[in-house]
Sequence to fold (145 residues):
Amino acid sequence: MAMSLQARRIKGDQFTAEDVLEVVVNQDGNDLNSCVFSIEKVSGVDVTHGGGGQPNEFLHYKAHERDANDDGIIDYSSCEMKVEQSEKGTTVIKVIAEIITKAEYDRVVAETEAWQEGDPDVVPAEIVELETGEITLQWSDDTLV
Fold:
């Protein structure tokens, strides 16, 4: 199985502008060097993520001082993403991840060291891009009866 990205709503409901998504990265045995997240608005009212990030603006949802283990490794397998609709209505989004694996990072470091000695050119790190399926957010009022 290749790396994949999934998300689901774990907090919020149709009567609030704010929801919290659990975002899960299936790393498929790959250690990750970095992982940043964004959202893509498929349709509907405007929505932000992470406390104000715009769609297609990538944010790092992990903090080294909070999330790294004793070896300095950050577990990117899951995180929580706050999303907020700007007005009442329905929005469809996808969560997007841009990932650099540890192996890819190590390759770039090795090529950079060799380049400094006058050997090969450095090929930029390959970024793995993943996206979830569509997630529907709704903010509305109930009707008095």
In short: The first strand starts at residue 4 and ends at 11. Helices lie at 64-67, 102-116. Residues 4-139 form a domain with the Immunoglobulin-like fold (CATH 2.60.40.2410).
